[in-house]
Structure formats: structure tokens, C-alpha cells
């Protein structure tokens, strides 16, 4: 009977211990599915994939999609986040297994001669684990799914950061080209003023004004180049590349704004369905509600130990039998554990509500910023730029008929370039606002499928519609970023 009981205890413990294997997947595949459903398809992890992406950088301009793929695969912070899934996997493994049985032994020495030592052995198992095993496994599985959702949310945030950095690099390149054109026009004006001053046609004040304008335009170029280098460095870091690997180049233009963007009501529904941090917060509330129910149901349950013990008495006879250890709830009725579980649930519910409010406001704010940037870009393209071009053309005709001087032509030409620059900045702000709106929604925007390739690039804008006096209209742009 004793051997049968001991065998039963050991077999039962072994069976229960083997019911929860360690998750074989590190969570990447499940997280990848979450990202793919939200328009972000991360590449498969592996040295071959990374090598292919790096080789691609040397063969063709870096697109925003390639930058995001490289960041999701190679960013060291993202790798650390994926590694943290191992902690949740370990919790799943441990929650589905019973605690190890406890083997005890004792030796008692008699105080009379001629008698044998009293030797005892015991094997005990905490069977509280058996009663809570299913609940504990269910909660651990839920936490593992929540951890994947949180990792997915961080991956989407990294994708948004990378896409925004790519927009800034392309936008900086376009602004450099435009500011160089403005600086060239200002330099021509200053050189012309110097010749007029030497001939006695203008005073020193007019010369200083023209030279100061040229100097400020050159400072704007230097500032634009500094912004480009900072943007490249930020994008390089997000893609997980070392400074020595900064050999990529980007496309030289941003797409034009869409004809129509998404409605706020649709975006709010999209955010409610796709925000992974919102899904994780909702899952946390559900898990804490489940945990509260378990705590309330088992609040009077203490440690329960079942085992078998055998002792050899001093007369060398042996006693064997089962043991039971039961914690009696005389002083602690579990009210503290219930109160703690209730407080955790209430806090999670409040945090969930705050997150829902923040998301709704972020979506509305993001949609308003997209609309405002688009309105600015449309106003530049449809109103200010055509007016500036008309002013330049009419001023050129007046110069030809000697009704206006060359300084006036150069001045209105600079204003034309400034309008082009304002348009490019508005387009850049539009795409940055769309990136932030996508971050607020938690997925690719529904209108992303309508993004085209057409763009108004800096070189096209700078094509001469009138000649600068005594100067070539070509601009030296330096190397591509």
C-alpha cells in the first residue's frame, strides 16, 4: 500500500509537470502576424535577409518601406524587445507545471544502548498547485499574448519613427536644393550691387543690404545641410547601422499630397480595431478580472501538502503511511489578496479608459494636422506659386523695356524660390503628419493604397522661367544624400 501510494504521488506529479512545455517559438512569428495585419510586414529574421537588405542599399535608393523593414530586422532596441518575450515564455512554462516534490529525511539517535537509530524518509507534494494549475496556465497564456501585443506596439512605433526619419531626410535634400537656389539669386544680387556701387550708381547702404541678404541665404544653406546630416544620422541609428555603414542614398522627392484623406470617423474605428497597446490594455483588464475571480474563489485555500513517509523505529520495525498538511484559515481569510486584486483591476480599468481617450484625441488631432498641412500645400501650389511666377514674368518684361531694374528682378526671383521652398516644407509636413496619424491609428492608413509616385521635385521647380542677370541659373547641389 505504501509503495502504491508513493508511486501514485510521483506519477501524478510527473504527468502534471509535463503538461506545459516551454514555447518553442520566441514570439516573432505571432508578432509578425500582428504587424502584417496592420500593414507592416517585417522580414524573416536571419543573416541572409539582413545581407540582402544591406546589399540593396548599395544598388538603389532607400525607400521608406525598405528603411522600415531594415529597422524592424536590425534595430538593436527591437532585438532586445523580442528577447524580453523569453521572460513571458518562461512564465507560461512555470505556470503550467507543479512545484517539485519535497524529499525529507531524519535520523534520531536513541539515548539507550543497544537500540538502532530511528530513521525516517518522507515525500510530500504541494497539491494547492494542482487546484490552481488550470487557472494559472490560463492567466500565463494571456500574459504571453499581451506581451506579444506590447512588442508589436513597440515595433509599430519603431516603424513610424523610421518612416518619419526617412521623410525628414528626403525633405531636407529638397530644401537644400531650393535654399541653394535662393542663395545663388542673393549672391548674384550682391555681386551686381558691388559693381553698381563701384560705378557710383548705388550707395553703401544698398550694397550692405544686398550683401547681408546673400550672407543670410548662405547661412540658410548651411543650416539645411546640418539638418540633413542630423536626419541621416537619426535614420541610420533607427536602421541599426553603424556610422561606417552610412553609404545609402534616398529618393530625391516626396510624393504629392493625396487628393482626399481619410474621414475621422473611419480613422477612429480603425484605431479601435488596430491599436495593439489598446488591445494589450483590454487584455490586461480581462486577465485581472479573471485573476480576481480566482482569488475570490480560493481565498480560503492555503497550502495543502500530500505525501508519504516511512520510519524505521529503534526496534527495527518500520512504519509507513500517507501524510497530509493543511493550512487552516483561522487568522488570514484572504481578504487582503482580494482587495489587492480588486485594486489592480480598478487601476487597469482607469488606465484603459485614459488610453482610449488619448487615442481618440490623438487621431482627431492628427487628422487636423494632416488637413492643415495639405491646405498649406494646396494654397502654395494653387495660389502663391502661380502669383510669384506671374510677378517674375512681368518683372522680366519690365526689365526688358527698362521699366524696372535688375535688383527688383532678383528680389522677386528670390521670393519665387521662397514660395517653392514653402511648398516643399508644407509637403514634408503633410507626410510627417500622416506618419503621426498612422502612429495614432496603430496601422497603415486606409488611404495609403492611394499614395502615388508623382512629386514636385526641387530640380523641376528650379527650371528657369526667366534668366538671372549676368549669372547662370544652374545650382551646385553637391552629392546626393
Give a written overview of the molecule.
With 481 residues, this protein is of the alpha+beta class. It has a single domain (2-461), classed as Outer membrane efflux proteins (OEP) (Up-down Bundle), CATH 1.20.1600.10. The chain is built from 13 helices and 4 strands. The protein has helices at residues 2-17, 28-36, 47-59, 64-74, 76-83, 85-95, 128-198, 204-238, 264-274, 276-297, 335-400, 406-441, 458-461, and strands at residues 102-108, 118-126, 304-312, 318-326. A 4-stranded antiparallel sheet has the order 1-2-3-4. Helix 10 (276-297) packs antiparallel against helix 11 and helix 11 (335-400) packs antiparallel against helix 12 (406-441).
Measured by DSSP, the beta-strand proportion falls in 5-15%
What is the CATH C level class, in words?
Answer: Mainly Alpha
Distance from first to last alpha carbon: 83 Å
CATH superfamily label: Outer membrane efflux proteins (OEP)
CATH architecture: Up-down Bundle
Oligomer: single chain
- Number of DSSP strand runs: 4
Question: What is the 3D shape?
Answer: elongated
The number of distinct helices, counting runs of at least 4 residues, comes to 13
Quick structural gist:
This protein has 481 residues and is of the alpha+beta class. It has one domain (2-461): Outer membrane efflux proteins (OEP) (Up-down Bundle).
Ordered list of secondary-structure elements with their pairings:
Blueprint: H1 2-17, H2 28-36, H3 47-59, H4 64-74, H5 76-83, H6 85-95, E1 102-108, E2 118-126, H7 128-198, H8 204-238, H9 264-274, H10 276-297, E3 304-312, E4 318-326, H11 335-400, H12 406-441, H13 458-461
Antiparallel strand pairs: 1-2, 2-3, 3-4
Helix pairs in contact: 2-7, 4-7, 6-7, 7-8, 7-10, 7-12, 9-11, 10-11, 11-12
Amino acid at each position: 500500500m505504501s509503495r502504491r501510494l508513493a508511486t501514485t504521488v510521483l506519477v501524478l506529479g510527473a504527468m502534471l509537470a509535463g503538461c506545459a512545455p516551454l514555447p518553442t517559438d520566441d514570439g516573432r512569428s505571432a508578432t509578425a502576424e500582428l504587424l502584417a495585419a496592420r500593414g507592416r510586414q517585417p522580414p524573416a529574421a536571419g543573416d541572409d535577409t539582413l545581407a540582402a537588405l544591406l546589399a540593396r542599399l548599395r544598388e538603389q535608393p532607400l525607400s521608406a518601406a525598405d528603411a522600415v523593414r531594415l529597422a524592424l530586422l536590425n534595430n538593436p532596441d527591437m532585438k532586445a524587445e523580442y528577447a524580453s518575450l523569453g521572460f513571458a515564455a518562461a512564465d507560461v512554462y512555470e505556470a503550467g507545471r507543479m512545484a517539485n516534490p519535497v524529499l525529507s529525511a531524519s535520523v534520531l539517535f536513541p539515548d539507550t544502548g543497544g537500540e538502532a537509530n530511528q530513521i525516517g524518509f518522507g515525500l510530500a507534494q504541494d497539491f494547492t498547485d494542482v487546484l490552481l494549475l488550470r487557472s494559472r496556465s490560463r492567466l500565463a497564456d494571456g500574459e504571453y499574448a499581451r506581451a506579444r501585443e506590447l512588442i508589436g506596439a513597440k515595433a509599430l512605433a519603431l516603424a513610424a519613427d523610421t518612416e518619419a526619419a526617412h521623410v525628414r531626410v528626403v525633405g531636407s535634400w529638397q530644401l537644400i536644393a531650393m535654399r541653394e537656389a535662393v542663395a545663388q539669386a542673393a549672391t548674384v544680387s550682391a555681386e551686381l550691387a558691388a559693381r553698381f556701387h563701384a560705378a557710383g550708381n548705388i550707395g553703401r547702404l544698398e550694397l550692405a543690404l544686398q550683401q547681408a541678404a546673400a550672407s543670410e541665404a548662405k547661412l540658410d544653406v548651411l543650416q539645411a545641410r546640418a539638418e540633413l546630416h542630423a536626419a541621416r544620422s537619426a535614420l541610420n541609428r533607427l536602421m541599426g547601422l553603424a556610422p561606417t555603414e552610412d553609404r545609402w542614398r534616398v529618393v530625391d522627392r516626396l510624393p504629392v499630397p493625396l487628393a482626399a484623406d481619410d474621414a475621422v470617423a473611419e480613422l477612429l474605428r480603425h484605431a479601435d480595431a488596430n491599436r495593439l497597446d489598446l488591445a494589450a490594455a483590454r487584455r490586461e483588464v480581462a486577465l485581472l478580472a479573471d485573476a480576481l475571480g480566482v482569488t475570490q474563489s480560493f481565498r480560503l485555500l492555503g497550502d495543502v501538502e500530500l505525501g508519504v513517509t516511512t520510519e524505521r523505529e529503534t526496534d527495527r520495525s518500520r512504519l509507513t503511511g500517507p501524510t497530509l498538511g493543511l493550512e487552516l484559515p483561522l487568522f488570514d481569510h484572504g481578504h487582503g489578496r482580494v482587495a489587492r486584486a480588486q485594486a489592480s483591476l480598478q487601476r487597469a480599468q482607469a488606465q484603459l479608459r485614459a488610453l482610449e481617450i488619448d487615442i481618440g484625441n490623438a487621431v482627431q488631432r492628427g487628422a487636423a494636422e494632416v488637413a492643415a498641412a495639405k491646405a498649406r500645400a494646396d494654397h502654395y501650389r494653387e495660389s502663391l506659386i502661380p502669383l510669384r511666377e506671374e510677378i517674375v514674368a512681368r518683372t522680366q518684361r519690365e526689365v526688358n523695356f527698362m521699366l524696372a531694374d535688375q535688383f527688383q528682378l532678383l528680389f522677386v526671383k528670390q521670393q519665387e524660390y521662397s514660395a517653392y521652398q514653402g511648398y516643399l516644407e508644407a509637403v514634408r509636413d503633410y507626410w510627417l503628419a500622416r506618419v503621426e496619424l498612422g502612429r495614432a491609428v496603430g496601422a497603415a492608413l486606409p488611404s495609403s493604397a492611394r499614395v502615388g509616385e508623382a512629386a514636385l521635385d526641387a530640380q523641376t521647380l528650379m527650371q528657369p522661367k526667366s534668366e538671372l542677370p549676368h549669372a547662370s541659373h544652374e545650382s551646385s547641389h553637391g552629392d546626393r544624400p
